[in-house]
Specification:
The protein is an alpha+beta fold. The chain has a domain of about 70 residues. About 35% of the residues lie in helices and about 20% in strands. The strands form six sheets. Strands 8-7-6-12-9-18 form a six-stranded mixed sheet. Strands 2-1-3-4 form a four-stranded mixed sheet, with no helix packed on it. It has a four-stranded antiparallel sheet with strand order 5-19-15-17. β13 and β14 form a beta hairpin. The chain is globular. The protein starts with a strand and ends in a 6-residue tail after the last helix.
Length: about 375
């Protein structure tokens, strides 16, 4: 409001302090009103420490600052980012929900290793329990299971003490558990003290076996796009098998789900999946997302909502043909990744991987055409030019 920002030095994922993992920027204020502020991306910490004039600098108008999140995109990619950012339709406009996974407050109790159809190993006791399969659901753990165009090696299940009806999840009553799911009830009773101790004892009441949060309980059974919440590249995939997933936590972390609005279902989840996994939209996300060590980025709702979406005019033959072609290639990517995971022959795997790489490139080229990118803009996205 007062235009007192004079300079920002952004270090990205570089670690400024030797003994602490922190993500640092320097912010300089001036008592006098500033029409512009100086922004520097210090890509190489050691070089910047020797000479603070190194890095990518740019002067930005103070009027560009708002109460919203600050996204400072500078250099050769700035015009492309601004053009994409000004597209009228965003992901938030076409989705009914972009949501986190389940929060149990006691993953060691509710999340178990599946040994057979009704046998599950508990992390908290280390013992095996036979539990009614109706309450056990396959569970994905973020980056462990959610991969680009594929869901792999799902070995965990979650005990879900709820009943789904008409799109609503209702906690099973004590009598329902005792009468219809006695084995699940016996297991929960063994862990009652741990469940009641959640949040400093706030769960010492009759619903002590409920999840810590009631968020998104009914969304798990729907067809959806899934992604890990932290990744080094776009890793969106499609779920039609009603996988459950968690919102956070260790051992692979959490993830996010994406549901299309009914009026945009004609676009197809596969069309949207192709856009989201493309180099172009991944480049866009990385301009606004939070970087982490090792080249990882945050993939969550606040960075998904502003993603520009190229909608389709189905009355336009060219538009419809492009949509259908993208859907076809995405279906191929899903099938090829499934084949690769199921095949142990190295030679066959290499053949499949070459087909995946070729199809991926075709998708990227089609997305570039859909978004009307120039040759120079494509070079920027693919980091072949001065970015």
């Amino acid at each position: 409001k007062g235009k007192h920002l004079a300079e920002v030095v952004h270090f990205g994922d570089q670690q400024v302090f030797a003994n602490a993992t922190t993500y640092t920027c320097l912010l300089f204020l001036n008592k006098q009103e500033q029409e512009y502020f100086h922004f520097v991306k210090a890509h190489h910490l050691s070089a910047w420490q020797n000479d603070s004039k190194t890095g990518i600098p740019e002067d930005i108008e103070s009027d560009k600052l708002t109460n919203d999140e600050w996204h400072f995109v500078i250099g050769a990619g700035k015009p492309l980012f601004e053009r994409l950012n000004h597209m009228p339709i965003k992901l938030e406009n076409i989705t009914s929900k972009i949501f986190q996974g389940l929060v149990t407050g006691a993953d060691a109790v509710f999340i178990m290793e599946k040994l057979s159809e009704k046998a599950y190993q508990s992390a908290i006791t280390g013992k095996t329990y036979h539990i009614e399969a109706e309450l056990m659901h396959p569970l994905c753990k973020g980056s462990v299971n959610l991969k680009r165009y594929h869901i792999i090696n799902v070995k965990k299940s979650i005990l879900f003490p709820y009943h789904l009806k008409d799109g609503t999840a209702k906690l099973l009553s004590l009598s329902e558990l005792q009468q219809h799911f006695p084995k699940a009830w016996a297991y929960l009773l063994k862990n009652q003290s741990q469940l009641e101790a959640r949040e400093a004892g706030k769960w010492q009441h009759e619903k002590w076996y409920a999840f810590g949060r009631s968020q998104n309980l009914s969304e798990m059974e729907q067809e959806k796009i899934l992604t890990p919440s932290i990744s080094n590249q776009a890793s969106f995939t499609f779920d039609k098998s009603h996988y459950y997933f968690v919102g956070s936590g260790g051992g692979g972390g959490g993830g996010y789900g994406i549901l299309l609005k009914e009026q945009y279902r004609s676009l197809s989840y596969f069309y949207l999946l192709g856009l989201l996994n493309s180099k172009l939209l991944d480049w866009f996300i990385k301009q606004i997302s939070s970087p982490f060590r090792g080249g990882y980025y945050s993939y969550n709702r606040q960075y998904f909502e502003p993603i520009p979406i190229r909608t389709i005019d189905f009355d336009n033959p060219t538009d419809k043909a492009n949509h259908d072609q993208l859907v076809e290639w995405v279906e191929q990517m899903l099938a090829l990744n499934k084949q690769r995971a199921a095949n142990n022959d190295p030679h066959t795997q290499k053949i499949i991987e070459r087909r995946i790489e070729a199809t991926d490139k075709q998708i990227d080229q089609l997305v570039y055409r859909l978004y009307d990118l120039t040759k120079k803009e494509i070079e920027i996205v693919e980091k072949k030019g001065d970015c």
